[in-house]
Amino acid sequence: MTKTFCNRSIGLVAVLVAGTVAHPGSAVAAEETFEVLQIGTNTYKNVTVTTKRKSYIFLLHSDGLASFKLNELPGDLLTQLGYVDPAAPKVQTNAAAVWARQTIKKLPVEQIKQVEQKVRQQFDLKVIEQKLPFALPQFTTNLIVAITAALLALYLFYCFCCMLICRKAGRQPGVWVWIPVLQLLPLLQAARMSRWWFLAYLVPGLNLVAQVIWSFKIADARNKSAVIGVFLLLPVLSIFAFLLLAFADELPPQKEVVSARSAPIMTLEAA
Predict the structure, then answer these.
(1) C-alpha 177: how far from its chain's center?
(2) What tens digit of pLDDT does each residue of 45-75 get?
(3) Where are the alpha helices (DSSP H) in the chain?
(4) What distance lies between CA 12 and its chain's CA centroid?
(5) How far is CA 52 from the centre of its chain?
(6) Global model pTM greater than 0.70
């Protein structure tokens, strides 16, 4: 009994001296006690944590004094003593995110805000309406329905013109003339062109060649001059040339006109 008391007294004195040497002039920190403490394979009773440092701790227990490094202590004990568990995985820093935050901090924020404000003003409908001499229409449901109906009527009128061109060129278009894209097939047939030219319209570059050939071929099929074929290739005049091919009266072939004129002459000579 006397030996245990002497050991505890000597240990307490040693702890106080160690704390004073480590931090001279500082007060002793609040002690933490444990009835039973398991460290490694050893069990300690009536434990009092007398000193806590960054790399070690001092314990006063029933059998004397002991010191342990932090890496020797279990994780739950480190948590109770206010330490961070050294065995816990360290949080890896995302270098890309850190670099992005640092770069953003270096950016001139005020100038970016000014540029952003200018861009918003340029694309703001209210600002645009103020600059325009007329007011922009409000896109209501009725307006959208009206625009859709107008586009549909325009498309049907285009298909009707294609049908007239095919019929006046001596070809029946069928239902293909009312189907988008596929209406090229009866138009090629009306121009006396192979339907394989349809594939040329799908290839960039070749579609221009196919359009040039079709323009002159359809003009010839409608007994029109090559000037109409040239007009079909021009941006604005192509609309009028297309309408002319659709609604103009049919002209007899040039050979028939010549034979009709030469018949009376031959008759007079025979007389």
Answers:
(1) 38
(2) 888 888 888 788 888 888 888 888 888 888 7
(3) 2-22, 75-81, 95-106, 109-122, 125-131, 141-168, 184-190, 197-200, 206-221, 226-231, 237-247, 254-270
(4) 70
(5) 56
(6) no
